[in-house]
Structure formats: structure tokens, C-alpha cells
Amino acid sequence: MGEPGGAGADGDPDSDEAGGVVGLGVFFGLAGDGLSAGWERARLAGEVRQDITVNGLFTLIASAARAREHAPEDADQVLTVLIDGLRPRV
9, 35, 37, 70: least CB-packed within 10 angstroms? Predict the structure, then answer.
């Protein structure tokens, strides 16, 4: 596995030496199809912002998870801001 805070052999900080995805990448690989389909349904229904792609959503989730590791006392506020920012603009 890659060094903490480092990158695997492929240069990806979320991969191991053999290039396999670890951590959040495993989650996204397993949940990605369902999350992607759900996000697209919500976009089509106008329930979430139209300008955020599913890849952008994955990035936001990963960022919030990493922020929780570094500042757990701020985790609730970070999640609230993230969710508020996903709501559609009126």
C-alpha cells in the first residue's frame, strides 16, 4: 500500500502500490452506480443543483471525509455547508 499521505505506483494518492483503489475509492466503486443513478434522478427532478456532476459530488464527499479526519470538531458544520450547497439555486 502507498505511504500515508503519499501516492501509489500510479501516482494516485488513493491507490496502493499495485494501482488498486483503497479507502473512499473502494466505497465509490461499490456505491458509484447507485449513487450516480440517484444523483441523475435528483438532477432531472430539480431537487439538486444542475451544475454539479456526479464526479463533483464524489469530490465533495471525499473532501468532507478528509476534513473530518483533520478537524472532527467541525465535521457537522462542514457537512451542513456541503448539503446546503447542493440545494438547487432559486
Answer: 70
Q: Where are the domains of the chain?
A: 24-86
C-alpha neighbours within 13 Å on the C-beta side of residue 27 = 9
pLDDT at residue 55, rounded to an integer: 85
pTM: 0.58
Residue 10: per-residue pLDDT: 46
The DSSP output letter for 18 is T
Q: Of 87, 86, 55, 82, nearest to 68 (Cα)?
A: 82
Tell me which residues of the chain have a pLDDT lower than 70: 1-32
Which three cell numbers mark 50? 444542475
